[in-house]
Amino acid sequence: MAEPATASQAAAPAVALLKDELDIVIPTIRNLDFLEMWRPFFQPYHLIIVQDGDPSKIIKVPEGFDYELYNRNDINRILGPKASCISFKDSACRCFGYMVSKKNYIFTIDDDCFVAKDPSGKAINALEQHIKNLLSPSTPIFFNTLYDPYREGADFVRGYPFSLREGVPTAVSHGLWLNIPDYDAPTQLVKPLERNTRYVDAVLTIPKGTLFPMCGMNLAFDRQLIGPSMYFGLMGDGQPIGRYDDMWAGWCTKVICDHLGLGVKTGLPYIYHSKASNPFVNLRKEYKGIYWQEEIIPFFQQAVLPKDCTTVQKCYIELAKQVKEKLSKVDPYFDKLADAMVTWIEAWDELNPTGAAVPNGKAK
Hints:
Elements (H helix, E strand, L loop, with lengths): L21 E7 L6 H8 L3 E6 L14 E5 L1 H8 L15 H6 L4 E5 L3 E2 L11 H10 L34 E10 L5 H6 L12 E3 L12 E5 H4 L18 H16 L2 E11 L5 H24 L9 H16 L5 H19 L13
Parallel strand pairs: 1-2, 1-4, 2-3, 6-9
Antiparallel strand pairs: 4-8, 5-9, 6-8, 7-9
Family: Belongs to the RGP family.
Subcellular location: Golgi apparatus
Keywords: Cell wall biogenesis/degradation, Glycoprotein, Golgi apparatus, Isomerase
């Protein structure tokens, strides 16, 4: 059985990579005691805490952390009418943190995710591994059978074209979980006691043209390259669906990454996911999505972005247009979601006026 690392096992790294270039975004409804075990790894960084639910509740943050905290009142004050695009009573609210950040990189983690241990018993610095993933290229055009060729001890295998060995910029690093797997409600109900104890020491690039179910609880991305596409949709209070926020962002982001020539990696790092959510509550949130995804997935598989979509914003607005045209027949919710996608981009550009447009995945 996998066990989380203790705070005493988590030694601070000699150098905090990208200390002034990365924000850690945490959505929460509770006191952030879990930060104590992450202190050696997180304390050098700036935290953006997005408080969901009752804004009058006081969220306690352990001393010694540099952070800013936003609740629903703050979101309404900062965005005005455009605050309608930010979900309420759902962890999808985390994307507000992406919008107000001024850093180049984002790492987001859930408050029930603890420090994991590798097979040798060493505490895993998940943030450091995410940064290494983001700072090395991806290989979406041609699959390398030895996984990430840029990791120490690996390289391109025989037969890999030399013309493709430079790779492409990495926009997303998608980490995994020990202990509680990220299962949907039906799988939770069938396998209530299943725990993930397999540690696979691998990072791979998800091939171009291949979608994946992105999980937001252990995720990092290059905000300059792909930030505007990381919208976690309309979920939670007043919406007919939940628990599809990160997957929606992942599908949109992957289509845009493929179009702009950017890469997405998955695998290391692992975190220890401590708590299984209630499968019956999850089923109530997910059940429409379980049906809808059978039409949503083909939509994204077939989505084509015009050549004149040279920025993330242009790509996202085009996707919103296609969502309205093709998915509104599935349910009126998608008409509302498409409008919210446009509102999100408008709000993003208002808060990020300089260098807002990122052509061809590279900042001006």
